[in-house]
Design a protein that fits this description.
The chain is built from three helices and 16 strands. With 212 residues, the protein is mostly beta strands.
Length: 212
């Protein structure tokens, strides 16, 4: 595997075809895992993390590394202030990825229904303006003529046919999408939001999703 470290400037790091470790350090960085099962870590700055293919781990807050074996954020790159206060972009790409969001209003983006099912830890359900996180599914929704896509609310009669929230039985929210809204097929599960209560779907949709 490759171990690629950025410096305090804005870096663009690419992992290539191996199982890589990319560490953005300070600065506004862009990290590409490419193929392979990669680990992408952000410390500071408004960063963009793209997992690519493979089952990747994307970390927008390096403090979650504490407790993983003997590795701590300080040991990774001698940083003590590891909670990124700025909004990061996380795109796991294909594969079943693990995404850790941190401080600031982070955006998790899905470009395809074939991106796999991601496990999301640390998701903040506050409004984005108050530091909450956002899931951008605008690229996978096709809602012509639907008022929900044009500023409507979850109370629209058609809305529930496209996007569903369910409890997985362990206190987590399962987010699934039916691309055409007709209900004929099985909804595609995009994400499992760990520790997020699915009972208040209206609030979750209004505050934490970009639909189009």
């Amino acid at each position: 595997p490759d171990f690629i470290y950025g410096d305090d400037d804005g870096n663009t790091l690419s992992g290539g075809g191996n199982n890589d470790f990319l560490f953005g350090a300070n600065g506004n960085d862009t990290l590409y895992g490419d193929s392979g099962a990669d680990l992408l870590v952000d410390v500071k700055g408004a960063d963009a993390l793209y997992g690519g293919s493979g089952d990747d781990v994307l970390i927008a807050d390096a403090s979650v590394l504490q407790g993983f074996g003997s590795l701590t954020p300080t040991e990774v790159d001698s940083h003590t202030d590891v909670n990124s206060p700025l909004g990061d972009l996380l795109d796991g790409g294909a594969g079943n990825d693990v995404l850790f969001v941190g401080g600031g209003s982070d955006t998790i983006r899905y470009a395809s229904l074939s991106d796999g099912t991601d496990t999301v830890a640390g998701f903040d359900t506050a409004a984005a303006a108050s530091g909450g996180d956002v899931i951008d599914i605008s690229a996978v929704l096709d809602l012509p003529g639907n008022t929900w896509a044009d500023g409507g609310s979850f109370s629209d009669a058609t809305a529930g046919a496209y996007l569903t929230f369910a409890n997985d039985g362990h206190g987590n929210t399962v987010v699934a999408v039916d691309i055409d809204g007709v209900g004929a097929g099985t909804p595609v599960t995009l994400a499992i939001l760990q520790g997020v209560d699915p009972t208040d779907a209206l609030s979750l949709l209004d505050d934490n999703f970009t639909l189009g």
